[in-house]
Design brief:
Helix content is 29%, strand content 16%. It has 33 helices and 41 strands. Strands 26, 27, 28, 30, 34 and 35 form a six-stranded mixed β-sheet that branches. Strands 40-39-36-37-38-41 form a six-stranded mixed β-sheet. InterPro entries: ATPase_NBD (IPR043129).
C-alpha cells in the first residue's frame, strides 16, 4: 500500500489521490502545524544545541521566538521542555544584564549591517577563480536574503561576552538570545557559570519561571514591556508571552507599583557611537542602579559589619575621588552561620569565597569594587578572612617585647611571631577591638589565629575569621633574621605638639636578599596606603658575613603600625608591628634647665628641675633609665634569673635570641637603651660621653644623615675590630673647624653630635612631665675660642635646635665661659664665697682660668689652648694641627709594658684596644689614653707609668707647673694694671674638667698642695695664704656643666657678667708689649720679633725656675724623677740660649702656625704655652726611649 511522505499526522488528510509530488502555494494550512510531532519534547537538556542545523545564520533568533510562543501556553509544565529551557536562558541573560550590565565581566561588540555586508561585497574574485564571485560576496547575499521579513529593519545587533566568552546577543524578536556554544566555550575558558543576585546558577538545564525571579527584575521587565511594546514585533513570541504574563496571568507577578524605568539605568557599552546597549533603535536595555543594590544589601543583610571607626569610608580611587563605600559584609568561606545574606536569600554554608573576588586591598584594590560571593554581579563590599589575617607567619629570631608591642597573645605571653593581622583591619576597628577579638593560640605544632568580627544580624553577634598555620610546613612560616629599634618611644597627643612626634627606626636586616622593607602608617591613612615613609633607605652598613645590614627610617609624624614586607621565592610575606607607645596626653609643667659642656675629649650634660618648694638641689647628669626609656627594641629584654643590673636585661645574648649581631650594631650606630652611672643601671654609657661621632665612609654633603650615615659614637670605648666595617670614629669635634678648616663635612659631623644631645634632652623633658616651652638650654665655650669658630658652632647649635625642637628660642646662643661656670658649683663643695679663689678648668683642648677676688669684687678670666691633649697626644704635624701619631711616650711605654706582661685571656677591653691601635681605624693617641684610663684596673696604665717609667711623670708635673707659673704672671700683670692695687694669691685653687684628672697621678691632695706652694715660692715673692687649699672634685668634668646650670638659675649672676676676659701674652715681664685682648691682630703681633723671642725666653725661665730649683727638684726626686737638668737641657739646649734649633723653639714655630693662618684674626690667648705644646710630646718620647 502506498504511503505519503509527510511530517504531520493530521487525520483529516487522506492518503488517496496523491501521486508523486503535489504542488501547493500556501504551505500547511489550518491547524495542520499543530499535528507536527515535536521530537524535542521532554529533551530539555538539548536546549543549548537546539536549532543548530537550521540552514540560516539567524535561525537561533527564530528558535527563541518559537520557544516563547510554545511556552506561553504552558507556563507551569509538569515536565519542562527544551523550549522552557530556552525561555529560561533568555530570561537569565536579561536578568544578568539587569544585574550586571555595567560590570567589567560583560563586554559588547556591535555588528553593523551596512558596514559588514559592505565589506563582504567589496571582496574581489579569488585568483584561482577569476570568473566566480568571492565566497564572502556569496555570504553577503545569503545574509541579505535572510534579513527580510521580521529582520528587515535590523541595522545592528550587539554581541554579548561574559569574561571574554561569547554568551549571546541582542534580538529584535526576543530582546536577547544565547549562543549555542556558550557552555562549551565557558568550559574551554575554565569559567565558573554566572549566578543571579539570589545565588542561583544561570544558564542551567532547568526552567525558572518569571514569577520565581528577583522582584526588581520582574518589575523592570514589566516597565520595559509597557514602554517599548510598540518597538517589538506585534506577533513575536516574546510580545505574546509578556502580554499574557502581565495582563492575563492567573498567577500575578510581584511588581513594585511605585517604580518606573527611571529607577533603572540604561546599560552602557563604552563603544563609540553605540554608547547604550539597544535592541533596536530607541529600545535600550537597563540595569539596576548600583545604589539600589547597595542600599538593599546594607538594609537587609545580617552580615553587615559593625565597624567602630570609619576610616574605610575615606577610600578613594586612583583619581583621588572617594568611592563612598558602604559598610561591608563580613564573610568567611563555608562559615556555618545562619542569616539573611542578600535579598531574600540566606547564606549558604557551602559557599566558597574564591581568591578572584578578593582584590588586594593592601595593593590598591578597592573595597567598593568587590562583588559578593555565591551570587553574581552583586557589587557590594565585603571582607573575608584573607583581608584581615595573613596567609603566612613571620617568625622572628627572638621573643617579641610584649610589654611594648602588641602581640595578640593572652596575658602578653611570649611570642616570636609578627602579628599576622593585616593592616587593613584598622580601617574598621581599633587596637582595643583587636585586643578583645583576637585570639592567638601558639602551640608546638601550629599557630591558630581566630578573629571575631562583629556583625549586626539578629542572633548573630560575630563572624569568625580563622587561620591555622602548621609550623612543620616551611611555606607557611618564614624565619626572618631582622631586628628593629624605635627612638623615641612616646607619642604626643596634644594638637599643638604633633611636630615633636619625630622618630628614627632602625631595621637591622640579616636576610641574604636584603629585600625587607618597613612601611609606617597612621590608622586613618591605611585605607589609601598613604605611608609616612616612601621607599627603603640606603643601608648605613651593608650585610657582611653574619653582620646584618642596617637601615634607618626617618618618620616625621606619629604612626600607629609598621608593616614589614618581603618576598621569598616569589611569595609575598607581611607582618605587622604595633608599638604601644608611652602616651603623653597632657601638657607638662616642670621647668628644666640644661647645660652642655661641649668638650674636646668629653661632653657632659647636666640639668636641674626648678624646685617650687625653695630647696636647692644639685644638678644631675642627663640619664636614661627604665622609667623613661627613649630607645626600645622589638626583642624582649631578658627577665630570667641571674640579672643584677638593669642594663644586663638589654644586652645579654638571650635577649636577642639567635640574632646576637643586633646588640653590637645598636651600640655602634644607634642609641643605647640606658644611660647613667647609677650602679643599679650598670650601663657602660654615661655622661660625660666621648666627644666623637661614628661616621660612614664616603660621607658627602647634603641630606639628613643623623643615624643613616653618622651618629654620636657612644660605643667608642667598647669598639672591637670588625671585618668589613665601613664606618670610623671622628673625635675632637670641638676644634674641627680650626684643625681641619678645608673639610666640608665638619658641619655635618658637629651638627649630628649636637642633634643627638638635643634629642636626648627633648625626650627627657617630655617623658618627665616637662614643659618643652619652658626648657632652657645653655652651652659652654672657652674664651680662647676664636669668634669665628664660636660663631660656626653657634650656627650648628641653632640648626640642630631647629631640627629637634622646631625653634631656637629655648637655646641661649651666647655660651657661658668655661672658666666662670665651675665656681657656682664649687661654692657648694667648700669654696668660701668671701675668699679669693681661682678655678682652672682643664679640658682636652683648652684650659680656662677664672680669678675671683671677692674682697675687691674683681673677676677676670683667661683661656688658652694648652690642656690634657698636649700631654697624651701625638704632638703637632707640619701644619701645627694635632698629628694623631701613636708614638707618644706614654703610649709607647704602655705598649712595652703590655708586651712584657701579656694577659692570660683577652677581654672585650683588650679587643677594643686592638681596634684603637688598628691604623685603619685612624684613632688618635688621645682616644687610646682615654680608653686606658677608663679601664685602668684592667690595663694598669698608671701602674705602667709609676713602676716602669716614673720619669714620664715629669711631663705631668711640668704641665701643671706651667699653668701655676702663668697664673702667677697673670696675677702680677693684673696688679700692675690696677695701679698697684694689691692682688693676693688665691686661698682656694680648684681644678675641674676631665683633663684635670691627671693631677691624681701627682700624689695625694697634700702632695699637690706642697708642690704648689714650692712652685709659688719659686715663681713669686707673694705670700701663700696660710690656709691655702686645693679642691679636686670626684667628677671634675661634671663640675663645669653643673656650675653652668646653677649660674643660669642664679639670682645674683648679673654681678659676674662684667668679668674681664684678659690674657697675659707670655712675654718676659721685663719686656712688656702693648697688645690689647681681642683687638690686636695676628699680623701686628707677627711683626714683633722681639716679642716672640721674649716668649721663648720666658718659657726657658719657667723651666729653669722649676727644674733647677732645689726645693722643686727635691720634691720631684721623692717620686722617682731625677736628673731634672737633663730634661732642661733636652728642651732648652745645653748653651741655655734657646737657639732656633732647640725643642722649645721648634715647638713654638709649629704651634703658632694655626694662629698665623688668619692674619686678620684678633689675639685672644697667650703665646706662653706654644713652646710647650709640642715640646712636652717630644719630651715624653725622649724619656720613653732613653731612660729606664
Amino acid at each position: 500500500m502506498p504511503h505519503i511522505l509527510r511530517i504531520d499526522n493530521d487525520p483529516n488528510v487522506v492518503e488517496q489521490n496523491h501521486l508523486g509530488w503535489t504542488g501547493g502555494t500556501v504551505g500547511l494550512v489550518g491547524n495542520r502545524i499543530e499535528h507536527i510531532s515535536d521530537t524535542l519534547l521532554n529533551q530539555a537538556g538539548m536546549a543549548a544545541k537546539a536549532g543548530t542545523s537550521i540552514p540560516s545564520p539567524f535561525a537561533r533568533l527564530y528558535l527563541f521566538d518559537a520557544a516563547f510562543r510554545l511556552v506561553m501556553n504552558d507556563l507551569r509544565p509538569a515536565q519542562p521542555t527544551m523550549y522552557h529551557v530556552l525561555v529560561s536562558h533568555c530570561l537569565d541573560l536579561l536578568e544578568l544584564l539587569f544585574q550586571a550590565g555595567g560590570s567589567p565581566d560583560l563586554t559588547y561588540r556591535v555588528w553593523n549591517r551596512a558596514d559588514r555586508l559592505g565589506a563582504l561585497n567589496q571582496k574581489a574574485p579569488l585568483p584561482n577563480a577569476p570568473n566566480r564571485r568571492h565566497p564572502h560576496r556569496v555570504l553577503a547575499k545569503a545574509l541579505e536574503l535572510d534579513m527580510r521579513h521580521d529582520l528587515a529593519n535590523l541595522q545592528t545587533f550587539t554581541l554579548i561576552y561574559y569574561k571574554g566568552a561569547l554568551l549571546g546577543g541582542t534580538s529584535p524578536l526576543t530582546l536577547v538570545f544565547t549562543s549555542p556554544n556558550w557552555e562549551q566555550e565557558r568550559q574551554n575558558k575554565f569559567l565558573d557559570p554566572p549566578k543571579s543576585s539570589t545565588g542561583r546558577t544561570l544558564f542551567q538545564q532547568e526552567y525558572v519561571p518569571l514569577e520565581n525571579r528577583d522582584r526588581s527584575f520582574v518589575t523592570y521587565l514589566s516597565r520595559l514591556f509597557e514602554q517599548y511594546k510598540n518597538l517589538l514585533p506585534e506577533n513575536s513570541g516574546l510580545t505574546k508571552f509578556l502580554d499574557k504574563l502581565f495582563r492575563d496571568n492567573p498567577y500575578p507577578l510581584p511588581v513594585d507599583a511605585g517604580k518606573t524605568l527611571n529607577d533603572f539605568n540604561p546599560i552602557s557599552t563604552n563603544i563609540e557611537g553605540f554608547s547604550t546597549l539597544q535592541v533596536v533603535t530607541g529600545l535600550p536595555l537597563y540595569s539596576v542602579r548600583a545604589d539600589d543594590v547597595l542600599r538593599e544589601v546594607e538594609s537587609n543583610s545580617d552580615f553587615v559589619m559593625l565597624p567602630t571607626v570609619g576610616y574605610y569610608k575615606e577610600e578613594t580611587n586612583k583619581n583621588g575621588v572617594k568611592t563612598n563605600v558602604r559598610p561591608p559584609l563580613a564573610l568567611a568561606s563555608r562559615m556555618d552561620v545562619r542569616g539573611r545574606y542578600v535579598k531574600n536569600t540566606d547564606w549558604d554554608s557551602r559557599t566558597v569565597i574564591p581568591s578572584s573576588l578578593l582584590n588586594d586591598l593592601g595593593a590598591g584594590g578597592l573595597l567598593a569594587d568587590r562583588r559578593l560571593p555565591g551570587v553574581d554581579n552583586v557589587q557590594y563590599p565585603f571582607v573575608s578572612t584573607d583581608d584581615f589575617l595573613e596567609d603566612f607567619l613571620i617568625r622572628m629570631p627572638f621573643k617579641i617585647n610584649s610589654e611594648r608591642f602588641f602581640t595578640g597573645t593572652l596575658n602578653r605571653a611570649d611570642c616570636d611571631f609578627l602579628l599576622p593581622v593585616r593592616k587593613e583591619y584598622f580601617n574598621f576597628f581599633t587596637l582595643d577591638d583587636l585586643r578583645t577579638n583576637l585570639t592567638l593560640d601558639i602551640g608546638d605544632q601550629r599557630v591558630t589565629a581566630v578573629l571575631k568580627v562583629p556583625v549586626r544580624g539578629q542572633g548573630i553577634r560575630f563572624v569568625e575569621f580563622r587561620k591555622t598555620y602548621e609550623l612543620n610546613e616551611p611555606e607557611k612560616v618564614l624565619d626572618l633574621p631582622v631586628g628593629m629599634g624605635f627612638f623615641p618611644f612616646y607619642r604626643m597627643t596634644l594638637p599643638d605638639q604633633q611636630a615633636l612626634n619625630q622618630y628614627t627606626v632602625l631595621l637591622a636586616d640579616g636576610t641574604t636578599s636584603q629585600a625587607t622593607q618597613a612601611n609606617f602608617y597612621r590608622f586613618p591613612d591605611v585605607v589609601n596606603r598613604h605611608a609616612l615613609t616612601s621607599g627603603k633607605p640606603q643601608p648605613r652598613s651593608p650585610k657582611v658575613g653574619e653582620r646584618p645590614a642596617s637601615y634607618y627610617y626617618k618618620v616625621n609624624g606619629a604612626f600607629d603600625l609598621v608593616e614589614i614586607q618581603l618576598a621569598n621565592n616569589d611569595i609575598p610575606y607581611r607582618g605587622v608591628v604595633v608599638p604601644e607607645f608611652t602616651i603623653v596626653s597632657t601638657r607638662g609643667y616642670e621647668e628644666f634647665t640644661f647645660a652642655i659642656d661641649f668638650g674636646t675629649s668629653n661632653t657632659h650634660v647636666a640639668y636641674l628641675v626648678r624646685d617650687q618648694g625653695g630647696s636647692k638641689p644639685d644638678p644631675e647628669p642627663l640619664t636614661v633609665t627604665e622609667d623613661d626609656l627613649q630607645m626600645v627594641l622589638l626583642n624582649k629584654p631578658y627577665s630570667g634569673p641571674g640579672i643584677s643590673k638593669d642594663y644586663d636585661r638589654y644586652s645579654v645574648r638571650s635577649s636577642f635570641g639567635s640574632f646576637e649581631q643586633l646588640e653590637p650594631l645598636v651600640r655602634r650606630e644607634f642609641v643605647p637603651p640606658l644611660i647613667g652611672r647609677n650602679a643599679r643601671l650598670g650601663t657602660p654609657f654615661a655622661f660625660p660621653l666621648r666627644t666623637t661621632i661614628y661616621e660612614r665612609e664616603g660621607l658627602t654633603q647634603g641630606g639628613d644623615y643623623l643615624f643613616s650615615k653618622l651618629n654620636l659614637g657612644f660605643n667608642i670605648d667598647l669598639e672591637q675590630v670588625t671585618v668589613g666595617d665601613n664606618n670610623r670614629y671622628v673625635s675632637t669635634l670641638k676644634w674641627l673647624f680650626e684643625n681641619k678648616p678645608n673639610d666640608t663635612l665638619n658641619d655635618l659631623r658637629v651638627r649630628a653630635f649636637f642633634e643627638t644631645l638635643l634629642l636626648l634632652i627633648r625626650h627627657k623633658v617630655i617623658q618627665n612631665k616637662g614643659d618643652v616651652a619652658l626648657t632652657k638650654i645653655v652651652w659652654l665655650a672657652p674664651s680662647s675660642m676664636t669668634r669665628r669658630t664660636r660663631n660656626r658652632l653657634t650656627a650648628e647649635w641653632n640648626k640642630a635646635m631647629q631640627e629637634v625642637f622646631g625653634t631656637t628660642s629655648y637655646f641661649q646662643d651666647e655660651p657661658i665661659l668655661e672658666s666662670l661656670a665651675p665656681y657656682f658649683y664649687l661654692q657648694r663643695q667648700g669654696v668660701l664665697p668671701t675668699a679669693n679663689a681661682v678655678n682652672v678648668d682643664i679640658g682636652g683642648g683648652t684650659s680656662d682660668l677664672m680669678f675671683f677676688a671677692q674682697g675687691q669684687r674683681r673677676y677676670f678670666n683667661t683661656s688658652f689652648r694648652f690642656a690634657a691633649n698636649d700631654i697624651w697626644g701625638g704632638g703637632l704635624d707640619e701644619t701645627g694641627a694635632p698629628s694623631g701619631r701613636m708614638d707618644n711616650g706614654f703610649v709607647s711605654n704602655f705598649l712595652t709594658y703590655r708586651s712584657n706582661n701579656p694577659s692570660s685571656q683577652k677581654t672585650g677591653a683588650d679587643q677594643t684596644l686592638d681596634a684603637f691601635l688598628d691604623p685603619k681605624r685612624r684613632m688618635s693617641p688621645e682616644d687610646v689614653v682615654s680608653l686606658l684610663f677608663k679601664y685602668d684596673d684592667h690595663f694598669q696604665f698608671t701602674k705602667a707609668i709609676q713602676n716602669q717609667q716614673p720619669a714620664l711623670l715629669i711631663v705631668l708635673y711640668l704641665h701643671y707647673a706651667s699653668i701655676i707659673y702663668h697664673l702667677v704672671q697673670l696675677i702680677e700683670a693684673q696688679e700692675k694694671q690696677e695701679a698697684g692695687v694689691p692682688l693676693d694669691l688665691p686661698r682656694f685653687l680648684t681644678f675641674t674638667g676631665r683633663g684635670s684628672q691627671y693631677l691624681n697621678l701627682l700624689g695625694t691632695r697634700g702632695d699637690l698642695v706642697d708642690y704648689t706652694k714650692r712652685l709659688f715660692a719659686a715663681y713669686t715673692t707673694k705670700q701663700v695664704p696660710a690656709n691655702f687649699q686645693i679642691l679636686l672634685t670626684d667628677n671634675p668634668k661634671e663640675t663645669t656643666a653643673n656650675g653652668a646650670v646653677l649660674y643660669q638659675t642664679a639670682t645674683d649672676r648679673d654681678q659676674y657678667r662684667g668679668n674681664q676676659t684678659t690674657a697675659y701674652w707670655g712675654n718676659e715681664p721685663t719686656h712688656p708689649v702693648t697688645f690689647t685682648y681681642n683687638e690686636t691682630t695676628v699680623d701686628a703681633a707677627g711683626s714683633e720679633n722681639d716679642f716672640h723671642d721674649s716668649v721663648v725666653r720666658n718659657v726657658r725661665d719657667f723651666l729653669e725656675k722649676t727644674l733647677k730649683n732645689s726645693s722643686v727638684s727635691a720634691f720631684l726626686g721623692d717620686f722617682g724623677i731625677r736628673r731634672t737638668q737633663d730634661y732642661y737641657n733636652f728642651l732648652v739646649g745645653s748653651d741655655e740660649t734657646v737657639t732656633r734649633s732647640s725643642v722649645l723653639h721648634d715647638s713654638y714655630m709649629l704651634a703658632k702656625l694655626p694662629i698665623e693662618r688668619d692674619t686678620d684674626a684678633r689675639l685672644s690667648e697667650t703665646f706662653f704655652f706654644l713652646p710647650l705644646k709640642n715640646a712636652l710630646y717630644e719630651l715624653s718620647k725622649y724619656i720613653a726611649k732613653n731612660q729606664s
